[in-house]
Amino acid sequence: MWSSGESPSAGAGDSTVTAESARPTESTEFAEPYDISAFHRLHLQETGNRFGYYLGAAKRGLRYQVLPHYWGNPPSWRLKYRSVVGARALPDFACLGAIKSGTSDLSTYLFQHPSIVPPLSKEIFSDVPRTWLPHYPTVKEMERVRAETGRASTGYFTPWMHRHPLMDNYRDACPDAKIILMLRNPVERAYSHYKWDLFLGGKAQAALPCYRSYADYVDMSLDQFPGMSYPSPSGFPLLQTGIYAKATAGWIDRFGVDRVHVVRAEDFFDDTVATVRSIHEFLELPPVTPVIHKAVNQNPLKAPPQDPDSRARLVEFYQPFNEELYTLLGRDLEWR
Known about the structure:
Layout: E1 2-3, H1 28-42, H2 51-64, E2 70-72, H3 76-83, E3 88-89, E4 93-97, H4 103-110, E5 121-123, H5 139-149, E6 155-156, H6 164-173, E7 178-183, H7 186-206, H8 214-224, H9 238-241, H10 245-255, E8 260-264, H11 265-270, H12 272-282, H13 308-329
Parallel strand pairs: 1-3, 2-5, 4-6, 4-7, 7-8
């Protein structure tokens, strides 16, 4: 048995949730898996005595078995256990974007809402909804939250906005779902993407000719566009990942313009409270003021800077694609 986990159709004003109901958290529960991941990735940047790393890795490995939440890939035994315990709900909304657009941080703020039940993993690396079930709350859990707060909702957060199989499969499984698209200025996103590849790949990645400077990285990407893959440890091509119009149109075509809410990432960065409350309203939840906390999933690595010439070349490259998006949305996102 499986359910879409839909919220009741009554208006948001009928809910028992109040602004004071926000979970008063510093997001430790949701930040911990990112901190553990960062600890392991940072060792790729280091040389010398490894004793401290191995000791810390063993301690974190034990803790990882029982975390309340994961950014991705929880222990297999937990998924096996959850797969045989209770009927589970499927997400009634999806929050999607491109990698390095801020969806991880946004998810921690949405999880503060008392009517939103977090999945076990923020990112589920499958585009087949039936396989998601062990990550999601049971139907009974959803009923309990609905009884306590007047609403119950749960979401899908993997940054796969460009994956057409996901669009089709999610529409077939949850046709009444709502879609939140987090879109970041593709020029600024590209630099974060470059730094993230360096963070994931470590010293070996930084030694590759196309990663020695941001200018080399941009030159290589522009030269090879739109084809030819290159060694990106994140698994996403730099330039194509920042082209949003066709993917946005795909979600609108499948779910309808009224069920797709586009969030400008810069608005979230500048005014987190207003952006999160607007998403609550879109989800037909009573708006709750989130508790501001330190951003999660930050890149601690210092990387070669974003030089002005490379940035200008990317501004020129993305302009026609951005204009296509603005026309689709009927809205200028002011990315210059």
